[in-house]
Batch of 3 targets.
Target 1
Amino acid sequence: MPEDKENEEIEPEITSDILGNVLVHLYRGEVQRVNTWRNRLDRTPYWSMVMVAGMITWAYASPNRHPALILLTIPITSAILTLEANRYQIHEVWRSRLRLLEENFLSNMLDPEATLPRTEWMKVLSNDLKEPEHKVSLWAALAVRLRRVYLWIFSTIILGWFMKITIHPTQAESLYVAMERGRIGFIPGPSIAIFLIVFFVSLSVLSFIGVYSVKEKREGEVLEEEPGYEWRRNEDYH
């Protein structure tokens, strides 16, 4: 029948248009989600920096204030880091979808010679919409945020403590005198100094091993800012 033939020719075009509209609206929604969680992600380092700067300033304001006040910021900063790593995991859920759409949908739409085939990447996107999963483990998220921000914050805290015991209440005449000033109750100053060094070295190792153990890069490709995209690098879905 001529009418049936006409419907057969129109149907794929309508389906393609609907699919395109759905993906465009999905892309806009994911952009908004990424921006929202990016803003939330940017707040927590600000909290840490303000707290650390305020505590160090207050501790240095009087030579008689104990250097342990500076160390109080370590557990608080660690708690904020854990919170931020969790936020980063959620942020990566939305950003991974965004990159999936950019790589496979928008790039094809902007290429005059490309088409929009129903390849495996759509199944990946569909499954991710049905059952969202973290694309980055908690350890990898901690490593990323440490390397980007928190190693600098922790190094500021530790250096601030060492400087405090060196110059307050007066210039320390020897390392022994400085370590005695760092004593907290029955815990000797050298033990605290060793703990701080081991703590910082451990964080440094975590930050670099955690990042590079999951990072992959195609030849000639701009490296993703953070890890967690190896699930998209599988050639099976292209």
Target 2
Amino acid sequence: MDAFFETRQYDSGIKVWHKAYKDLHFIPHWHPEYELIYVMKGQAKITVDEKTVFAEAGDLVLCSSGDIHYSDSDYMNNELAFLIFDPLIIHDSFNTYQLTSPHLSHQKLHQLGLDELIQNTFQMIGRELMEQRDYHEELIRSQLQKLCFSLIRQTNHLVLDEPSQNKHKDNLFKFQELLYYIEQHYNEDISLDDAAEMTNFSPSYFSTLFKQHTGYTFVKYVNAIRIERAISMLHKNYNMTDIAFECGFNNSRNFNRVFKEFTGVTPTAYLKTSTTNQITIKSNIRKSAIQAHTDDFVNKTLVSRN
């Protein structure tokens, strides 16, 4: 998963992606698709464009096209279901659908008469993508349209006004470009002042905005990208000194210090860990989760508040 821009492979001819995860953590990223996150069990801390929400079982979190979002939910004993799809599958109007809050609680969904529809949609699409029977793409498209137009109709009073949407998009575009730049130039000397100049903000204001958008300080975010690249190179048996310089560190000592800050161990110790431990270590960098098999969820009641 790229930090700035996430791309995915679809298992079917239709651009709809469905997966379920336990204890999910991922750093800020964005993609052109729309994303629906449904909490099946436990709680989840999710941030969508500066707005952090604590969602619980039965709640829905919505990420519009281009929204920068991330999750710090790896220790919250949760199960989350995801639907990610090209908004153009629905209608042009859905591409600009933006609520004042990305979070719809299970109480609100019940009040709007959407709770059962959402559960049925996640179950039905998961099953159709898994089985891929005749006309599954048409049925998926139809069910998504039913859900999305119902959302638009029932939440029309919760949609951002046009001036707010325009300001939101302007700031979002600046940060999308910046995250792309960091991804391409993480091995260079990128200062906070340079980044602030790229976005036309003062360094102090930029620092505040960056933390609001990503949950990270600027330096920590850049180092997260560097350490992920370092881990990839470690598994390919590169020399430690070469890894340090290739990933933007000016010496091995600094590389070892930052690596341990993120993983809890030195690069040498990391290589000696088991596969199970590596999953835990990576949870502090880009993305970690226990992926649940979709078929474990498509034939059972989605919500559990135990």
Target 3
Amino acid sequence: MPDDISWVSCNRDSEVPPNAVHVDKEMFVIRGNYSGDTIPGKWVRNLHSGYVSHGGREIQLENFEVLCIPKDRYQWEKSRDGQPPSGAIEAGNTSGGEKLYVAQGKINGQKCIGKLHPSHKCAYFPWGTAEHRETKCKDANEREVVLSPRHPNHIMNLDLNDDPPPSYWEIYPNGCPDFPPNCRCERSFSCSGDELCTSGPAPRSQPPSRRPGPRPFYPSASVCPGSYPGLWSSMGAGAQSAFNTLTPQASNKAEACREEFYWVECKATNPPPPDAVKAEGEVYVIRQKYKGDLIPGKWPVRLKKGYISYGGREIELSSFEVLCIPRANYQWIEASRGKIPPGAVIGGKTANGETLYIARGRVNNEPCTGKVQPSHRCAYYPWRFREHKRENYTVLCFF
């Protein structure tokens, strides 16, 4: 590494070291260690925290390293599909040895710093408890520092839409690892690409002729005929369909990938699928699209109907997706007035891009699940034909 590029150990309350690389006066380029990876990310000083992204989630850090380079030694340039040009600044690596680079972009109009993952042909950003993905990039080359070809170095800047969904999906072009050969699977980005597997049935000979419908929200679901009746299972894999060559190191990680959480398409008359998240009694967490929103809600099994709320009304559903989290690896955390605890599970999204979370509460002493809408500073529950507003609620979160 050239002498005038350095990483300085800091904590969330440290003074900013000289020549720290920043995108505005309060956000600096960092890297931190998580789950065996060294991951570039952001230090937001006014929030007193560092952040990296991993496995579909935003990870909060107290200790990290800050990238320091004299201001006249780097610049930002465009690129795409995650491919850094020569002379790029190396910022980290995966546990499997792949190099990671620094990415800069905007999420919901706010500047953000994350990681470029070349084998995924994209970059990932930590923001709003989730990991966001994009493929159109701007890169930053060194101006004057001469770098060894053995150590390419690069800073990336992504040209993002203002409000990308938390993650995206793609169809497997070569079949679905770990599921029956006739299964038609869509990729979810709830896990990192290092957790892809190579085990399972032989690849399908032909990819589907077209991608079905609009992109589902985080995490996506996949129809697998022949498993549980009506069951939609998420592969939880973190790479796009272009990444067909899967590494041997990842061959035993399919279970770890799928076990985070997934959504199952059900009819209201079906029995609950395995691992369905229960709010209380026989009320389960669901989601469904309505008027452009993807809205979390409730499924009281005994009523053989699902319900979400929208525009002051309770909306009755005969089919929906059920949230499933293996091993009950979740908890309900109290919050109020639109606040979202760390590790909150993303339940949906409004048509204009606002993330919705899963709320639990009681209406007229009956258990309900609904949506937390942070910009409204409240939760909404469907009950008896109406939408009920509550300032105090509990939020579904991972342990």
